[in-house]
Amino acid sequence: MLRNKAFIRKTKRGTIVKVVKEHYLRDDIYCGVAGCKLCVEQNVVLTSPRTSKTVNTPHFLVPDTNVLYHQIDVIEHKAFTDVVVLQTVLEELRHRSFPVYNRVRSLISDPARRFYVFSNEHNRETYIEKQKDETPNDRNDRAIRAATRWYNEHVGGRWTFVLVTDDADNRKKAQAEGLTTFSVRQYVASMTDHPELVDMVAAVDEEHVDEEDKFSYPEHLSVSQMSAGLRSGAFLQGKLSISSNNFLEGSIFAEVDKEEKTVMIVGREHLNRGIHGDVVAVQLLPRSEWRAPVGVILEEEEVENGDDEPVNAEDSMARAEDRMNVDEAAKETVPTGKIVGIIKRNWRPYCGTIDKSSVRSSSGLSTQQMVFFWAMDKKIPKIRIRTRQAEKLVGRRIVVAIDGWAKNARYPSGHYIRTLGDVGEQATETEVVLLEHDVPFAPFSPQVLSFLPPEGDSWIVRNEHLEGREDFRHLDVCSIDPPGCTDIDDALHCRSLPNGNFEVGVHIADVSHFVKPENAMDLEARRRGTTVYLVNKRIDMLPGLLGTNLCSLRSNVDRLAFSCIWEMTQNADVVNVRYTKSVIRSKASLTYDEAQARLDDATLTDPVTMGIKGLNRLAKQLRARRMEAGALTLASPEIRFKLEEDQQDPVDVEMKELKETNALVEEFMLLANIWVATKIYSAFPESSMLRRHPKPPTSNFEALIKAVGELGITLDVQTSKTLADSLDKAVVPREPYINKLIRIMTTRCMMQAVYFCSGTISEPDFWHYGLATRIYTHFTSPIRRYSDLVVHRLLAVAIGYEKNYSSELIDKVKLKELCDVLNYRHRMAQQASRSSVELFTNLFFKDKVIKEEGYVVRVMKNGFSVLIPKYGIEGYVYSTREESADGGASSPFTYDRDSNRLVAMNATIKLFSKVVVVVNVEEAGGAARRSKLTLRLVEPNIPGLSVNESEIKSGKELLEMEKNGIGRPNKKSKTERAR
């Protein structure tokens, strides 16, 4: 049956056109129910109707759009199977939230869940027309009820189809039409086999009212008001970033006075329910209220006592605000503002723990209570959740989602999603690291694995693979990697030519031969973006068969490669370069130590060793040339753990040592990336995937320049060359570590390197500041980076190897979107790796009390950060020791903002000051979010703050100090505060 709908519209040019839309209605759309007598040809999905206390007859569920949108965490629970997803619901959901739509699509594609999509909008008996004066939402609600009613009539009473909706008006109408209907909360309450489902129900449109203190935030402006303010310039738009040091300080980056500046947002009222990552509308405060950065260490768990008594919480907040007071007359002020509205929420599921102090003893699971949840991310405020399993969740890592934040509620409200495991358990904490950094780590699906070569492990290079490739199996190729490396991306060779020059080759795994564009494996690799390396495990971008076998350039097996071949003079000048698909057979898979041993042994003259020695001579010249051009040699306090084989517990920690062979490999990988970038850009000037490193603004270095000046060192940051030269001269004879420390701190002044599409920015902005090169890309690691795989595809087209390719490969709009995704994945992978190191550092220091030397790398109003070179770790030392009689925190130090130092009667703490600290781990528990390193000052000896030798000798005394709060702000009980 064909239905036509015609309407008239006006085009942009002003012409009037008649538009006719055709809508086909059919009689042969199957219901999907097993055993249906009316559907002759079955597309059977719904096979196992359920029963419950509320509906004791066999039934299937039909959720409406809001249920899938708001309660997707509940719907994703394994208890929900045999669900009808109506076309109306799916289309509406796609327009409302694409991420949630994709989650529903995943359920639909899982055969075990039995989610059936019914095309009610194309079924002649379920399609309905929109009535006059009916809103689209009301029409869709009516369409959902009509489809549910049809299902019940269609199966002739054998089963019941239950409409699940949280819309009270929709339920009322459904009941009037004779349908069985429940809210989500009503329905899951009857699922006694899964009591946790009640906790997982999102509290949509529920408001919490603090009646005792009548607490209220300013009202958020409407969308139209924000839009008008943004257009007129009255408001600024930006992504809210909460300080990692101070939960009451946020900022956005926006244009102020025709210049991009950081706008600070300080205090709970001005933050106005904004959460880290939200896109917000901000109104600038008058210039008289602009202020210097706050500069204090302030964690919410340090100032909140966990009580839900408004007067105590308010008193705690007032004291927190007092600790942030700064010199309003300070010379260096920045713009300040307040949030007037939320443009886009960026909420995600959060991992964390229940605040034990907020849990009240209950009679059992039937009693639901409001408790507080601490997210692992210190930038997220504590969250109220209702749960019937509060006592059971104490000491466990759980996942919670935020539902909303009412203006009359001090904290956001949310709901429980699931339990991960016990606090402190290595497997649990590792999963938390992955979840917190949005790292996809689920096993590869059967659909992805179906695109692996059918031969599996027995796959070999055959004659048909050689078409269009050069055969380099006779060359003395070798790989040089860290010990234990199985995903070998790259290999090299070097040999002398008759004319006295060298032939140098960089051979990169040809992943693009196995991973074809747009298939399930490619899409999964794109979603993951990069391989993530944790201390104790690796989360692969590609299935293991490829990443650690067929694409890995292991020794003594034939492997497909993409090669970059140079002819170079004795002075490392490039005479010519060519790019080719190839097949290689590596003669040796070496570790850095093994390759270094060959370099150091003058008696070894075998071809592989001579190749490495030739590469090393050329690499030194290439490096010298880069340094002369202004490339930077920076540093980071990287450490490596030695793990017990069985327990995977850290038994030792050491700084990573870089050898000559590390630099050798690095130079030729950089050279390949630069030359490949040049090639693809010449072929695709508008759609090449490149990588740039923006020049950091001079203001980033101001504090560092001032600090090194006191050491008699001058940093010239005008160009990367002047900075590099300055760093080479930044030497303190009696303190050799100072040079590395300055390089570490210089690294922190840098901007983030990012992927970009060449057609979206001007060529001068391609510049890579850190490498001092005009153009750069990533080509050398396609096993572990999706960006490199894209570059391989571009290069294959550029050299004429790949003649049939999709236009999407050179679509600059889509490439820009992909770059944004990859930049995000790369950033998250880096942060996950650091968090994994932090986790294992805490495990290593557990039950240890260690005294070590360190250097001050940051000074704040109420403390300072210390880097301990031996372990590469960093932590805070609080300069406050206890609360004074008036409730404030006392300190033997005075903070001098102009010179950025803490001054006591007998000592001064400033950047690069050498101190001695005692290190131990404060275990997670109570209100503590996570185990964390605790540093306490030993030297200089500050009376009332520093610990003494007798206290260090006994770990028991130190733990007792920790309980009593000595060495950091003390959290007194409400009885003590009342006194």
Walk me through this protein's architecture.
This protein is of the alpha+beta class. The protein folds into four domains: 26-194, 5'-nuclease (Rossmann fold, 3-Layer(aba) Sandwich), CATH 3.40.50; 223-422, OB fold (Dihydrolipoamide Acetyltransferase, E2P) (Beta Barrel); 446-685 and 777-828, no CATH class; 846-978, Beta Barrel (OB fold (Dihydrolipoamide Acetyltransferase, E2P)). It is 30% helix and 24% strand. It is built from 28 helices and 41 strands. Strand 15 and strand 16 form a beta hairpin. Helix 19 (607-629) crosses helix 20 (660-683) and helix 20 crosses helix 24 (786-798). The radius of gyration is 32 Å and the shape is globular.
